């Protein structure tokens, strides 16, 4: 009898311990699930920023963010994410930067101003959608905005970044961007989508301890062409005589993902290939067998040591760089149209800067120095007019 009494006592103690432990776990989980997700938005490489000083997205910048999480009761960290646009697995919120250190606050979708009484203790618009931690598993955060229109003052592009969750390209949820020149007059007017993707799970006991740091990266490429006369002086060229520089074969439509795949990965930015058989290219196909051309923007100040510099945001496949210049100011001046084909079939990569330094002779390009380097998100990218500043070619 004493034996069975002891067993009952032990079992009671074990059950009591389990109940207390379960209550503590449940209380901790409920506390986590009541916590809003806080964000900081930076624009330098994550490794550098987390270890040292940060370069933050400017105050009043806008971005849109989606949160993906494991919603199943029996899900584990290795489970797949559900249908990518199902409401239970994807939540979208609109945020803006509230101060000089990159703190992001949830805001209304229209980004309209609100009175102070409509702000909560975190500075969030009380009528905005807010993210909360759903469980202790991984959450994926995907943020997107236009670096050349961070405050939405030009085209409100950041307000319309998720126009329709049914937008697709090749069965993936992608947003289309117009990469033609149109009536644009500078690179600052081109779309420059930047994207941040972070995976995090709550581990601390306060919202601040679980703050998510977003690090944005360019999704398209930048191309810069710098021109000067050749050293042998076979042609002495004035900067005014250089009429245009064109990129041949580049994409006219680029696509940027706004939704993860079920395994938690993100599709790469891509572009619509140029179909040279398209009727719209037939009138120019004799002069340009690659179909499309992009007339690059002249920089207001050329790179040091060069007569004239051109720049643009581009994507897709670069087939050639065509330069048009004349020998004098005369009305009947000889005109030269020369194409550099050393870039043929070059696939432009996201977040990459391509620099071509060229020397011109009559009817040909004398010398080309190419530099391909990361197009980093740094403070120069967040200038007032969105123009990408020269970095001295380093």
Describe the overall structure.
- The protein has an 8-stranded mixed sheet, with no helix packed on it. The protein has a 5-stranded mixed sheet with strand order 15-16-10-20-21, with no helix packed on it. Strands 11, 14, 17, 18 and 19 form a 5-stranded antiparallel sheet that branches.
- The protein has 394 residues and is mainly beta.
- The protein is elongated.
- The termini are far apart.
- It has helices at residues 2-33, 46-51; strands at residues 39-42, 62-69, 90-97, 103-107, 139-146, 174-178, 193-200, 212-215, 217-218, 221-229, 242-250, 253-257, 270-271, 293-295, 297-298, 308-314, 316-326, 335-340, 346-347, 352-361, 364-374.
Q: What is Rg?
A: 27 Å
Name the helix and strand elements from N-terminus to C-terminus, one letter apiece: HEHEEEEEEEEEEEEEEEEEEEE
The end-to-end distance, rounded to whole angstroms, is 86 Å
Strand-pairing-aware structural class = mainly beta
**How is the largest sheet built, in terms of strand order?**
8-1-4-3-2-5-7-9
Can you give the mean pLDDT?
Answer: 83
In quaternary terms, these chains amount to single chain
Sheet bearing the most strands, described?
8 strands, mixed
- Write down how many β-strands occur, each being a DSSP E stretch of 2 or more residues: 21
Relative strand content: 25-35%
Count of DSSP-assigned helices: 2
Mass-distribution shape: elongated
Low-pLDDT stretches are: 7-27, 45-52, 379-394
Q: Tell me roughly what share of residues is in helical segments.
A: under 10%
